[in-house]
Amino acid sequence: MVATAIVPQGAATSTSTPDVYRAGRFEPNDFAVAAEDNGGDGLILPLAALRAALEGDGIGNRRLGLLFSPADRLEDVLPLLGRITVIAVDFPKFADGRGFSHAARLVRAGFGGEIRAVGDVLIDEIPFMRRVGFTAFEVRNETTRRYLAEGRDPSPSLHYQPGAMPEPPAGTRPWLRRHPT
């Protein structure tokens, strides 16, 4: 008998929040999640729509990003990394952790743009999201928004294990790492 994983199903993120949490504060959101290319600037598109937009002639200087769904494969995204500035990794349900793996693999693949968590982003997940490479968060949960707005970010400053992002060693114990500030 072969065991299979039960993957929680949730609705894919189809809209953006008016602001995004990055660098310790909420800032106006400069990208919008869209189901298809509507010709605007600062669009985050699903993989198929992004491919179609990049293959067309109407890109110009527009900034485009990818909405990386849990079922998307990194191998399909790798050829596009040099042409996009933001990747929004979708968390349709808090119990679906595939986005953590997606972010860590994007960092290892050399993606240097913004990796943004969208969907069901909760306060207790943000420290772990940062450890694997997330740099921005579209937060819908009211409790999480309130905690972040009040400066109650639960991210620790010392880590015992290396993360996906480069970290300087602290003190005489190279296995104790300090989060870059």
Structural key phrases:
181 residues, alpha/beta, eight-stranded mixed beta sheet, 11 strands, 22% helix
Count the helices. How many? 5
Structural class: alpha/beta
What is the number of E strands?
11
Radius of gyration: 17 Å
Straight-line distance between termini = 49 Å
Helical proportion, percent range: 10-25%
Which geometry do the CA atoms define?
Answer: globular
Describe the structure in your own words:
With 181 residues, the protein is of the alpha/beta class. 22% of the residues lie in helices and 24% in strands. The chain is built from five helices and eleven strands. Strands 2-1-8-7-6-5-4-3 form an eight-stranded mixed β-sheet. A three-stranded antiparallel β-sheet has the order 9-11-10, with no helix packed on it. Strand 5, helix 2 and strand 6 form a beta-alpha-beta unit. The chain is globular. The termini are far apart. The N terminus is likely disordered.
Would you spell out the secondary-structure blueprint of this structure?
Elements lengths: L18 E4 L2 E4 L3 E2 L9 E4 H9 L8 E5 L5 H4 L8 E6 L6 H11 L5 E6 L6 H7 L3 E2 L4 H8 L8 E2 L9 E2 L2 E6 L3
Parallel strand pairs: 3-4, 4-5, 5-6, 6-7, 7-8
Antiparallel strand pairs: 1-2, 1-8, 9-11, 10-11
